[in-house]
Structure formats: C-alpha cells, structure tokens
C-alpha cells in the first residue's frame, strides 16, 4: 500500500510540474499591454498578460508588446460590444486613451 501511495504522489508531482511548465511557457510568449496612470507613460503602471478579456484600469498611456497573440480593444468593460481597435504588432501611445477592456486572443 505504501508503494502505491508513493507512486501516486510522484505522479501527482509530475502532473503539477507539467502544468507549471505549460503555464510559464504560455506567459513567456504571450503579448502584453502596459498602461500608465499618466500623464503620459508615467507614474503608476499595470501590465496585462492574461489570455482572454481583461478590464483596463489606467488610461494615461499604453505600450502593447506583440509576441504572437493579437489583441482587440473595447470601449466597454468585459469586452462587450464591438472591438474598436486591434493590435497585430507593437504599439505605443503616451496620450490618454478610451478603451475599457481588451481581449488577448491566445
């Protein structure tokens, strides 16, 4: 019985390590959006890296780093309504912007 528990523990550990590697490899290659409180690209900053929808809290300026997955920008929270802009490459703007959410398409 002790041998089966040891094998089960090793299997569980291998599964957890596989998930960690999978998650870190996706984050390392994902596109991201840095936003600042402003004015411009100054002061407090936040970074959005998650695939899917993220609400944007700061609107002073932004920098999108394209690493494969494109992103769509929305005027409403929760990625509701039609997207009003798309990023398929690097972009930076140190002026205020109106987008309230974005969807990184991983």
Automatic annotation (TrEMBL):
Gene Ontology biological process = defense response; negative regulation of growth
Source organism superkingdom: Eukaryota
Q: Where is the signal peptide?
A: 1-30
Signal: is it a keyword of this entry? yes
Q: Which UniProt keywords apply?
A: Signal
Q: What is this protein called?
A: Antimicrobial peptide 1
Origin species: Stephania japonica
